[in-house]
Write a structure and sequence with these properties.
By secondary structure, the protein is mostly helical. The chain has 23 helices and three strands. It has helices at residues 6-9, 42-49, 59-69, 75-94, 99-119, 127-141, 149-175, 200-203, 207-222, 227-238, 248-274, 279-299, 302-312, 315-318, 321-324, 330-338, 342-360, 365-368, 374-387, 399-416, 426-434, 440-450, 456-472, and strands at residues 31-33, 36-40, 397-398. It has a three-stranded antiparallel β-sheet with strand order 1-2-3. A hairpin with a 2-residue loop joins β1 (31-33) and β2. The longest helix is centred in the middle third of the chain and has 27 residues, at 149-175. It is elongated.
């Protein structure tokens, strides 16, 4: 996403959204507490979004309102209302004799549109939004027709917007060609894979390098998740008049694509372990992935770390008792301690907070890396949404709730903008992204062939699986 001043100043020390001194605290709509905006009607909040001759909204407010407004109003409708307010203000200024005031007003409106188009480009994907944008731009251009400066700025803004929309469209087309989460490719019932078959260790035997390549992939995928994608968690359920906001399929697709990456990595780890023929080599594979997960933790890549741990905790891998008896599990125990789900993942959240603090004072991109466990991040937003109402009993929008959601999403945006300090290794990444992965059924079969069933329940499962796959063949 294009970087704008919003990210350098937004939510600096808290998610308070300090108001302008001249806005006052006596207003009933919107409502302030200790100088912080906490609620208001949709109309009043829109009024606060639009600049005047003497006022420009705080960037924290612009981001938070534009982010949350889609829960209550479609972007093209919001643009129309902003346009109507602009017309009124323009008409009032035209009644005066000072042309400079008109130019100053025009510059502020352009700045608002610029921040909007750069931060939420997908709000302008439909014809209605583009039409409203062009109408506002046309009226603002009239404020400075002599030298054409405003017209040039608007033209550049529109060009950048179209480029951003084109880039997102191309990303979707590429993403559709990516590997599906699970496949049965490579699974043969009675024949174990040959020991000479290519595995992850033949491609990369250094845990640190593999952790770095996983981090590269994570950051690449994070860069294609946008704030409105995350807000979809709220707007998908509470969109206006019980109909979905435009672009729902596209937006949830970005989140699902990233979630699929987590699942693929977990299944890849399990596949790599279960398909190894010899116990000694299988033990080495388990210890290798433990080391990779530890390196991911040290880097700040918690998502890959969790995916690896999840893969090793899948039943087909966990049941390999003879293999695990040979594994030095001390390091694995430490990793599981960090990801202990008790007390709402308290240990993980402490580690995440430490990584975030390191990132804030870092002098290099290497130290700035923070990749949260995405599923937990999404759940945090979801539960924050569920425990607080969108509107207060008096009908006003509960803006305090959206300040907090905005703060969490801002943290995520800050982390995803970190430039990856590691060079891309095409060979390793190609393997990670395209190597065949087993389905859950295939994993169990490979696991049973590695270490036979130990009880009647496992024996029954083994027979059922073999029969099912034989009939399928």
């Amino acid at each position: 996403m294009p970087q704008t001043p919003i990210f350098s100043s937004m939510l600096g020390s808290s998610c308070s959204g300090q108001v302008q001194p001249d806005m006052g605290e006596r207003c009933v709509d919107p409502v302030y507490q200790d100088g912080n905006l906490v609620s208001g009607s949709l109309e009043a909040l829109i009024e606060r979004l639009v600049p005047t001759m003497d006022y420009y909204p705080d960037r924290t407010y612009i981001f938070t309102f534009l982010l949350s407004s889609r829960v209550f109003i479609h972007p093209h409708e919001l643009l129309a209302k902003v346009g109507q307010i602009c017309i009124k203000q323009k008409q009032q200024l035209e009644m005066g004799t000072e042309a400079e005031k008109l130019k100053s007003f025009a510059a502020k409106i352009i700045q608002l549109l610029k921040e909007w188009t750069e931060t939420f480009p997908y709000d302008f994907q439909d014809e209605k939004s583009m039409k409203e944008l062009k109408e506002i731009a046309h009226r603002i251009t009239q404020c400075d027709e002599e030298n054409g400066t405003v017209k040039k700025i608007i033209s550049q803004m529109t060009q950048n917007l179209l480029m951003a929309l084109s880039a997102r469209s191309q990303y979707q087309e590429i993403r559709e060609k990516f590997r599906q989460p699970v496949t049965d490719k490579g699974t043969i019932l009675k024949t174990k894979p040959q020991s000479t078959q290519k595995d992850i260790l033949s491609v990369c035997c250094d845990p640190l390098i593999l952790a770095q390549q996983l981090t590269y992939i994570e950051l690449e995928r994070l860069s294609n998740i946008y704030p409105e994608d995350l807000m979809q968690i709220v707007s998908h359920m509470d969109s206006l008049d019980n109909h979905k906001c435009r672009g729902d399929v596209t937006k949830t697709y970005n989140l699902e694509a990233y979630d699929n990456w987590f699942n693929c990595l977990s299944m890849l780890v399990a596949t790599e372990i279960c398909r190894v023929v010899k116990k000694k080599q299988r033990t080495r594979m388990v210890e290798f992935f433990i080391d990779v997960a530890r390196e991911c933790f040290n880097i700040g890549n918690f998502n890959s770390m969790m995916a690896i741990i999840s893969g090793m905790n899948l039943s087909p891998v966990a049941r390999l008792k003879k293999t695990w008896s040979k594994v030095k599990t001390a390091k694995f125990d430490v990793l599981e301690h960090h990801m202990d789900p008790s007390s709402n993942f308290c240990n993980y959240r402490t580690a995440l907070q430490g990584a975030a603090q390191r990132s804030q004072t870092a002098n290099s991109n290497r130290e700035k890396i923070v990749i949260p466990v995405f599923n937990l991040f999404i759940k945090d937003i979801y539960f924050l949404h569920k425990i607080h109402t969108n509107r207060l009993p008096n009908g006003q929008i509960n803006f305090k709730k959206f300040w907090e959601i905005s703060r969490q999403i801002h943290d995520f945006l800050t982390w995803k903008q970190v430039e990856c300090p590691f060079e891309k290794d095409k060979k390793i990444q190609s393997y990670l992204l395209t190597a065949p992965i087993y389905s859950e059924e295939a994993l169990f079969i490979a696991s049973f062939e590695s270490e036979g069933p130990e009880n009647h329940m496992e024996k029954d499962s083994w027979k059922t699986l073999r029969t099912t796959l034989l009939n399928r063949a």
